[in-house]
Design brief:
Layout (H helix, E strand, L loop, with lengths): L1 H6 L1 E3 L4 E5 L4 E4 H25 L22 H13 L3 H16 L7 H32 L2 H6 L2 H4 L8 H17 L6 H26 L13 E3 L10 E2 L2 H22 L8 H17 L17 H33 L1
Parallel strand pairs: 1-4
Antiparallel strand pairs: 2-3, 4-5
Helix pairs in contact: 2-5, 2-9, 3-4, 5-8, 8-9, 9-10, 9-11, 10-11, 11-12
Length: 345
């Protein structure tokens, strides 16, 4: 017991980074981490999508007969794109097409949109949808699943006070899935599942870092534990005693970073033969399956938990797991179908 007392870590982080001079308005770590992670995810999406564009290059007929001169050299950014593509696509014709695209966009910048500019433009359009979906969906999800809804009906202004309330990841994910469908429906350059395969990679990264914000706020904590890796939170948000508890935000940080790493690895490994919907299915299936079991180590978060045999987080995870399974089966059938078509040629 003495050894455990020595090993247990006590934490009491200040949730406020600083206060704005004169206004004395606090800037919270949670907000800084949330916005920083979102920006990093946005830049990562541009990086990924720009490389995906290399697989869909179409040279305008006006320049179809133009050849790349021997003296042509790629810019630094173009070189990174080309090397990435060259390493993962063993097709001389495709490589030649990419090099021609890079030459044309450098030679005729007014007529040929660059890969980088197309990637930025697409990401900028998608960003607005993702931000609105994440904040609105997560906020409404928290109100519907974890709080007394009538309180918000009597005083709707409370809905906007996110700094006094919470955000639910289940609500955010559902809103992202819906808003992505609305966004892609207006476009022809990518399918819904193809888009979500790319979006889920930075989404997992953002989800991971949001949990660090939860850790600093001493919220969404686990149940008391006697394990040596328990953490003593001096001022837990739920008002419980300062006893060793499962550091749930750290568990979920590891979970989401692990899923992010797996998705990013699979995307690169299967770059030239990716099955649409596979990455999305894995992100949903793994995340919510693990979340289901982690909920057993959590303290009740919802006012409805005492009425349910499972915690609200587990109830909400079950349909997400089912969606993940269905998407995985669909992706598997798509591969079988493609393999069959190839064998028939």
């Amino acid at each position: 017991m003495l050894l455990q007392l020595l090993l247990w870590i006590s934490v009491d982080p200040d949730p406020i980074v600083f206060r704005i001079p004169f206004l004395n308005h606090p800037i919270a770590w949670y907000g800084v981490i949330f916005s920083s992670a979102f920006y990093a995810g946005y830049k990562l999406f541009i990086w990924i999508y720009s490389r995906e564009l290399l697989k869909t290059i179409q040279i305008p007929k006006k320049y179809s007969n133009e050849s790349v001169p021997s003296y042509f050299s790629l810019t630094k950014d173009q070189g990174k794109l080309y090397k990435f593509f060259e390493k993962r696509v063993d097709n001389k014709e495709a490589l030649s097409l990419v090099k021609k695209q890079l030459y044309l966009e450098q030679t005729y910048p007014k007529e040929i949109s660059s890969i980088s500019s197309r990637g930025n433009k697409f990401a900028d359009s998608a960003l607005l949808y993702m931000i609105i979906a994440t904040v609105v969906g997560a906020r409404l999800g928290h109100i519907l699943f974890y709080e007394p809804v009538l309180d918000y009906l009597y005083s709707p202004i409370l809905i906007l006070k996110t700094w006094e309330g919470g955000l639910a990841s289940h609500g955010g994910i559902i809103a992202i899935l819906f808003s992505a469908y609305v966004f892609v429906k207006k476009r022809k350059e990518i399918s819904y599942l193809g888009f979500m395969d790319l979006v889920c990679i930075p989404t997992m990264f953002v989800c991971a870092w949001i949990r660090i914000g939860n850790f600093i706020n001493q919220e969404i904590l686990g149940a008391p534990t006697t394990y040596v890796w328990g953490v003593i939170f001096k001022h837990p948000a739920d008002g419980a005693l300062a006893v060793p508890r499962h550091p749930m935000p750290l568990y979920e940080f590891i979970l989401y970073m692990g899923v992010f790493g797996l998705l990013f690895y699979l995307w690169q490994k299967n770059f030239s033969k990716r099955r649409e919907g596979l990455l999305l299915s894995l992100s949903i299936l793994i995340s919510f399956s693990v979340r289901f079991f982690l909920e057993f180590l959590k303290m009740p978060q919802s006012i409805y938990d005492h009425e349910l045999s499972l915690q609200m987080g587990q109830v909400l995870s079950l349909p997400m797991i089912a969606i993940g399974v269905l998407l995985f089966i669909k992706a598997k059938k798509e591969k079988d179908y493609l393999d069959k078509k190839v064998s028939e040629r």
